[in-house]
UniProtKB/TrEMBL annotation:
Residues 326-728 form the Glycosyl hydrolase family 13 catalytic domain. The lineage of its organism: Bacteria, Pseudomonadati, Pseudomonadota, Gammaproteobacteria, Oceanospirillales. Pfam families: Alpha-amylase. This is Glycosyl hydrolase family 13 catalytic domain-containing protein. Belongs to the glycosyl hydrolase 13 family. The keyword Ribosomal protein does not apply. It comes from the Bacteria. Signal peptide: none annotated. Keywords: Glycosidase, Hydrolase. One of its GO terms (biological process) is carbohydrate metabolic process. The keyword Cytoplasm does not apply. SUPFAM superfamilies: (Trans)glycosidases, E set domains. GO terms for molecular function: hydrolase activity, acting on glycosyl bonds.
Length: 825
């Protein structure tokens, strides 16, 4: 506790007096009770009866004895057959303490006094709605004055917030005659004059405890514990089996309604949990937890850093330079063809095990380096609910059912050691950084796996309307809930060095809240160039706040937050429907060219005015190309290959047709040559399929896993993706950075309904190519009349290197179902 300011304050006396430990209750005392400890050489000294089941003694403690520091136990019969607590009760050295013992509950309380010769043996108790009308001992302040500090909520079933002062704890003498009522949700200093029986109540400013965050903030000498409780002031904390009552903490750092305490000592590795009205609850800010329990663990995170220390993340000049690759930890290496060692398959360390191959082809992290992606987006790897038994290796889940937002999932660790679990996550991120690849975490702040996660703290965490489609969506419009999400993002960024976040169903949140998270993170980490993007829709819910939520039509207003969204309009323009073979888009020689036109230019608005009100699903929505994530497939819905096969079945095209393989390349060839940020579903570069399963969130490995023989079997597909990525990375003409640059330097020309030509002034963005033509042809072969001058072919005929820089003039035949790229130097 920070008691340097007011060492004798009522608040501090209150904290000392209520420090206690709860053990299993027995009946009322049926024998004498004895003090035994270091001050009396563990002899049996009878306690003094106070009243009812309450006993007391005063003892002066020194430095302890040969067995340890100053400590004691309460012995029922003086023969050790029954004693409390289970472990010795440790206290500070060189101090005098009044020790009270309640034989009905076995609760021990201590109060520091100047010396035992001036001990006050009388007692007065606070009893009211904050403590459920229990008995909270008040601190003696001299001159018949007894005080306590209490935080009141809204009352109880019998009425509003109120209390009485009880002399003996059994209602035989209490004051005032009728309950003393106070205001709701307020903390008071309450003092009682035992001589005059007068009660003095003043509003308290709160404990002077200084916070840096909520949860358990560790230091080698003390740990601060704090939790938000907007509905109840009856807040407890149990640390290593010892119970404490938490006072209200003064509002600070934007935190309100907080209860907290600082406990001395090195508490690393100690188990703890909070209680609200006596009910155990998890720490929403907990950094580690016991599996499947509402019990957290205090963590010294400095012990968890990667061996050899952190390396700097790979440089990212502009966010539009990113090429994102999405993958699930288990999917990536669980198959034996990954070449990853058996112990690391499907684990954090398997993601970054180097030197792995299959029949001479690189696999794992070396594959990603060879492919050329800049970012790997990993499906959720915080603690999730499903597959709760790590020993059940057959259980599979994507992890979109959060249990603890800040705790790494144990299923992906190779050990049960909590320090090593964290270190393995950090090692994974660090090794990706060494490989030149940044790491994006898929986060699911929009809902929890059940109400159980927060309901016993407060239902204010949740929306009244089910916006996520899961029955328990999070309400970030409550300031302290939105703050929790921001704090979690900051924690992962600072502690785990993550480079960005993909938000699941970010559309349940207000766009200004989303933008504020981005603005804050970029202010705290100005050199990190974080990528923040998400799904701009909710779980198919009707939302009365629709116009305020994250949608295509609102995201431009948050440009300063550097936050973006997936572009569903461009996805549908390219491939059509998500989960069946109908509605083939431009990649299938169908679709609408106007939608392709807008998408290829990063979906930028018609005018550069973020405040202009547009349709919430307008395909022209962005004021910066970094706000647009272009993609055709992701973990959700049919994999691209499955979509192609479903379309082929409807249209009578054989599965082994080369035309279908061509579509696989063409679809993402469009994505990789469009303005905005490209996103690839892991395995798409190897013709990955999932047996037509459009929602494989809990399907077995046989459906979800990457089979690395695909890379051998589909080497031509892989080569296309690798070369198209290299082309994009080599030429900033594909990566304009502002609305103005695209507006002034990128012109699209529609030829009929099936050919879109993009004319790019590439030199304006520092490209070695002065001018680029990109042709998306979804019809038959097309003879395009070239602008004047000599042109070179960079990409054609379903092969990014087929052009090989050959020279053309006058006209150019662009094949159908292909991306053709020409340039002038």
């Amino acid at each position: 506790m920070h008691n340097n300011k007011k060492a004798e304050s009522r608040i501090m006396k209150r904290l000392i007096s209520v420090t206690g430990i709860l053990v299993m209750a027995a009946g009322l005392a049926q024998a004498d009770w004895f003090f035994r400890g270091t001050p009396n050489g563990w002899a049996a000294d009878a306690l003094d009866p106070v009243s009812g089941s309450l006993y007391e003694t005063c003892r002066t403690f020194g430095e302890g004895d040969a067995g340890g520091g100053p400590r004691f136990k309460i012995d029922r019969y003086g023969d050790w057959t029954e004693s409390y607590p289970a472990e010795d009760y440790a206290v500070g050295s060189n101090q005098s303490l009044v020790i009270q013992f309640d034989s009905s509950t076995q609760q021990i309380t201590t109060e520091s006094v100047a010396d035992c010769d001036t001990t006050v043996t009388d007692s007065w108790y606070f009893r009211g709605t904050p403590n459920g009308w229990g008995t909270t001992a008040m601190a003696f302040e001299g001159d018949n004055r007894w005080c306590t500090t209490e935080s009141f909520g809204t009352g109880d079933g019998g009425g509003g917030p109120r209390f009485k002062i009880d002399h003996t704890g059994d209602w035989t003498e209490s004051y005032p005659e009728t309950d003393y009522f106070v205001s709701s949700n307020t903390t008071y200093d309450i003092c009682f004059d035992a001589g005059t029986r007068q009660i003095d109540v003043t509003e308290a400013s709160g404990s002077d405890l200084t916070l840096s965050s909520l949860g358990a903030e560790y230091s080698p000498t003390a740990t601060t514990f704090a939790i938000w409780s907007p509905d109840s002031s009856n807040i407890g904390l149990v640390v290593d089996g010892v119970g404490y009552t938490l006072p209200r903490v003064a509002d600070q750092l934007g935190y309100t309604g907080i209860y907290g305490i600082e406990l001395p000592g090195d508490l690393h590795g100690v188990e703890y949990y909070f209680t609200i009205d006596g009910v155990p609850v998890r720490d929403p800010y907990g950094k580690m937890a016991l599996p499947n329990q509402d019990v957290n663990i205090v963590m010294d995170m400095s012990r968890t850093d990667p061996v050899g220390g952190w390396v700097a993340p790979p440089p990212l000049i502009e966010r539009e330079d990113a090429v994102i690759y999405e993958i699930h930890i288990r999917d990536f290496t669980i198959d034996s063809t990954s070449g990853v060692s058996a112990a690391n398959r499907g684990k954090y360390l398997g993601m970054v095990e180097g030197g792995t191959t299959y029949q001479g082809a690189t696999t794992g992290i070396d594959h990603l380096k060879e492919l050329g992606v800049t970012h790997v987006q990993i499906l959720p790897f915080y603690d999730f609910s499903t597959c709760s038994d790590p020993a059940d290796t057959s259980c599979y889940n994507w992890g979109y059912d959060p249990r603890n937002f800040n705790v790494p999932e144990e299923r992906y660790a190779t050990t049960t050691d909590t320090i090593e679990r964290v270190r393995e996550v950090k090692t994974m991120i660090n090794e990706f950084h060494k490989a030149g690849i940044r790491v994006i975490m898929d986060v699911v702040y929009n809902h929890t796996f059940d109400y159980e996660m927060f309901e016993n703290i407060s239902m204010r965490y949740y929306t009244d309307t089910d916006l996520s489609g899961t029955g328990n969506s999070i309400d970030a419009n409550v300031p302290m809930v939105g703050r929790m999400i921001r704090d979690s993002l900051e924690y992962w960024t600072r502690e785990y060095r993550l480079d960005g976040y993909r938000f699941d169903l970010v559309g349940i949140f207000d766009h200004d809240e989303y933008g504020d998270w981005g603005r804050y993170l970029n202010q705290q980490f100005p050199d990190r160039d974080l990528l923040l993007y998400g799904e701009p829709w909710n779980g198919y819910a009707s939302d009365p706040r629709e116009a305020e939520r994250v949608r295509l039509g609102t995201i431009a207003r948050e440009e300063t937050g550097h936050v973006g969204v997936f572009n569903p309009k461009y996805r549908e323009a390219i491939k059509g429907n998500n989960d069946d073979g109908y509605g083939g888009g431009f990649a299938f020689n169908q679709g609408e060219i106007w939608a392709m036109d807008f998408g290829s230019r990063a979906g930028i608005r018609y005018t550069n005015d973020p405040d202009q009100v547009i349709d919430l699903w307008d395909p022209m929505y962005a004021t910066d190309p970094e706000q647009t994530i272009n993609y055709v497939s992701a973990h959700d819905n049919l994999a691209l290959r499955d979509k192609i096969l479903a379309w082929a079945a409807l249209n009578g095209v054989p599965e082994n047709s080369d035309y279908l393989r061509r579509i696989q390349n063409y679809a993402n060839g469009i994505v990789l040559t469009s303005q905005g940020i490209p996103f690839l579903h892991g395995g798409v570069e190897m013709l990955r399929d999932k047996d037509g399963d459009h929602n494989s969130y809990k399907s077995p490995d046989s459906v979800n896993k990457i089979r690395w023989n695909w890379k051998i079997d589909n080497a031509d597909i892989y080569s296309y993706y690798r070369d198209a990525i290299a082309l994009r990375k080599a030429h900033p003409g594909f990566r304009m950075n502002t609305w103005d640059e695209i507006d002034q330097n990128v012109t699209t020309i529609r030829h009929a309904d099936d050919v879109l030509v993009t004319d790019i002034d590439a030199g304006a963005n520092g490209d070695t190519w002065s001018r680029i033509l990109v042709i998306y042809n979804s019809g038959g072969n097309f003879s395009y009349p070239l602008p004047s001058g000599t042109w070179k072919v960079a990409m054609e005929k379903n092969d990014p290197t087929a052009g090989n820089g050959r020279t053309v003039t006058g006209s150019m035949v662009a094949e159908g179902t292909a991306v053709t790229v020409l340039y002038q130097e």
